[in-house]
Each structure stands twice: as structure tokens, then as C-alpha cells.
Inverse folding.
DNA sequence: CTTTGTTGACTTAACGGTCGCTAAAGTAAC
DNA sequence: GTTACTTTAGCGACCGTTAAGTCAACAAAG
């Protein structure tokens, strides 16, 4: 379950039903996909699908579970591994978020389907996202207080940064010319500018 | 049609059917809304709805038309009104985008439903968004060349900025404490940092 | 060894309900 | 009488879901 290292992204190991569902949900959206499409894409019949999952929504939840946990644990590992300076921690977290968003882009797209979940599940994912926000916010605040960073409001800046990263999936194409590490490098530079720490500083 | 000024946002003047459809689409998503819901929300019957619009998709298109055009024309006006410096143009465009995203948040949320459109309509909106990107990119490039801005890549930075603005709708609440002008002010500061132009400079 | 019972994985067939959409008739204003 | 718009009624297709049966694998009982 736990990856060997937060920078290493093995191919997603999902059961065939979830693998197929991921493709269909990504292409057509949650409400736009029928359980029949999910079933045929996974190579099973419809009741075969219901044997493994109690409902269509449960499939989406299982998929999101695989996503949110990974993002959070990788960002945490990236933070812990960094030298104990705001700058090092910040760049590691940014790199890890951008790597996850790109390497797991199909899963990340599902974030926009989050609001169709029943309230209980939705609260669960809202909490997870808040945890990520707090991780990044802590680092930005530390940099703010030590004057390593130049930000007017750590809270606003953190929220803006996370939005910036999340938006990558709206244009990222795994078949395109840019690789995840390349994008991570570019966004590291941009994010450093956003928190007022120029590349030149060390 | 054209607003008196790009900073002024009168209440949306939409025909009742579109007004109701906007609420329903925003709450449930395109595929999650039925034409029966759209009709009852607008106070008409289903065939009454089909008298005005040929299909469910046409309603979404009409709604998006009202959105994209406004965003583009306001950003253009904000650019033209600014003093002819990259910094003034940049802050005006940023302010105008953030004001539109917040004042017209219900319409902006529909952007995530864009991929469910048939290819022809989707290309139309992709082109409009590209126009906005080019408007902002031109200004960022000008600031880059005149050394007013400090960016490593105007293209990447512009794309990151637009993603940052678009993401506002994921947390913005019209009933919340923050008003659109307040958010615009905060994002102006953040965006200036992102392009490497500190607030202190004039 | 066979027989029998149990489980797990999956099938065929279909349930009631909702989907997007429309034909045809009606109404009110000009 | 024409135009603008609404109504009642319902089309066929598809929706998420389920009941009931099939079939291989395996274990305990004879």
C-alpha cells in the first residue's frame, strides 16, 4: 500500500472493476456514466459488478479513497524528508502535490465529482483536503514568520496555491510533451515566486 | 448587453428558464439534472421548455454563452482602461477576472461541465478561453521583457494564474464574509507576487 | 474415492421508475 | 386567422438495482 518513496509512482494497482470505472468516470463524469458502461468496460456483467460493490456511488467512493490517501501520505513524507527549513519543506510539498496531480491525473479529475457524494462521504474528503491545506499552511506561516517568505496573508496564499495545483488537471495531457517531473519543476519555481522567495536565495 | 463599466456587476438579467436552469445545473450538475427539474424550477412545463430551447444541451450552451462573453469583454475593457504599463494592465485584468469569477460564481461553476458538451460547442469555448489566456499572456510577456516582472516562463506563469483564479469558485460562498472586491484585492497582491512584482514598487 | 453440502463468483432475466423528448390539441392576443 | 405559447398525455429507451439460478472449487461425511 505505502509507496517505497514519495517521488516514485508505480502504475496504479487497482482491481479491474475500479480500473475500468476510473476510465469511464473520467471520460463521462459520475452522472454521465451508467452502471452498464462500467460493467462492460470492466469485462463483467452488471450484477457481477454489484457482487463486488453495493452501489454505483460505492465505486466512486472506493476510487476517491485510493486517491486522497495517497496525496496526503506522499505530501506528509515529502515534508518530513525535507531539511527543517520552510523553503526546503515548501518545495518538497509542492513537488509532491504536483507529481501526484499529474501521475494520478485520472484520479484527480474525479475531485470535481466530489460534490455529488452523499454528505457523509463528502465530509470525509473535505476533512482530508483540509489536512493537506493545513500542512502547507503551516510551512507558509513558518516562512512568513521567519521572513524567509514574503506573503501578505499565509491563509489566502495557501488557498491560492492549492487551487493553482488542482487546476493543472484541466490542461495536463499524459500523452503530451511535458512529463510530471518537468511540470513539478516549473511549478516549484512559480510557487516560490508566489510566496516571495526567489530562486536565487539559498 | 454591454455593462456600463467592467467593475460594475448588475444582477444577472436572464430569461426565467435560464435563471432556473442555472440554479439546477449549479446544484446537481448537467447530467444530474433532469429536464423536468429544469422546467418546474422555471415555472413552466416540459414542452414549454422545449418551445424555447431545442434540447437540454442547448440550455447549457445558452448559459455558457452568457458567461464566456462577459468574462472576455470585461477583461478586455479592464486592459484597455489601464495605464499603458504592464503592471497597471496586469492588475486591472486580474481584478476583472476575479470580480467576474465571484460575482458570476454560479455561471463559473458550469465551466467544469464544459467537457460534456458536443465537440463543436466545446471548441468554441476552448477558443474563448484561449483568447483570455492570450490577453493575460501578452501583458505578462511585456512585463517580462521590460523587466517589470520577474518570471521564469510567461507561458507557464499565465496558465498557473488562470488556474488559480478559476479555482476560487471551489471555495467561494456568496453568503460568506468575503465580498468580491475584497477577494479581488487579495488575489491582486498574490498575483503580483507570482509575477515577481512586489507591492512596494510603483 | 465417492458423495454431499457449502461457499464464492457470476449469470440470465427482469423490476419499477425516470430519462430526454414530442405529437396533438388548446388558449389568449393581435 | 395567424402567431406565440401552453397544456395533456405519452413515446421508447435507458436508469440503478435485484431476485433467482448456474457452476466451479473445496471440505466434510460416508
Amino acid at each position: 500500500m505505502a509507496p517505497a518513496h514519495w517521488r516514485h509512482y508505480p502504475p496504479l494497482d487497482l482491481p479491474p472493476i475500479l480500473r475500468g470505472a476510473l476510465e469511464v468516470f473520467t471520460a463521462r463524469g459520475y452522472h454521465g456514466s451508467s452502471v452498464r458502461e462500467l460493467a462492460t468496460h470492466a469485462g463483467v456483467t452488471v450484477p457481477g459488478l454489484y457482487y463486488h460493490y453495493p452501489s454505483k456511488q460505492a465505486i466512486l467512493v472506493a476510487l476517491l479513497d485510493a486517491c486522497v490517501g495517497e496525496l496526503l501520505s506522499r505530501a506528509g513524507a515529502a515534508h518530513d524528508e525535507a531539511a527543517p527549513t520552510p523553503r526546503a519543506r515548501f518545495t518538497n510539498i509542492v513537488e509532491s502535490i504536483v507529481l501526484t496531480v499529474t501521475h494520478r491525473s485520472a484520479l484527480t479529475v474525479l475531485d470535481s465529482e466530489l460534490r455529488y457524494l452523499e454528505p457523509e462521504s463528502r465530509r470525509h474528503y473535505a476533512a482530508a483536503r483540509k489536512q493537506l491545506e493545513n500542512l502547507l499552511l503551516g510551512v507558509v506561516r513558518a516562512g512568513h514568520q521567519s521572513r524567509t517568505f514574503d506573503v501578505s496573508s499565509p491563509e489566502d496564499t495557501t488557498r491560492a496555491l492549492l487551487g493553482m495545483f488542482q487546476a493543472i488537471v484541466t490542461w495536463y495531457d499524459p500523452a503530451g510533451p511535458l512529463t510530471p517531473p518537468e511540470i513539478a519543476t516549473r511549478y516549484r519555481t512559480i510557487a516560490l515566486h508566489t510566496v516571495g522567495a526567489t530562486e536565487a536565495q539559498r
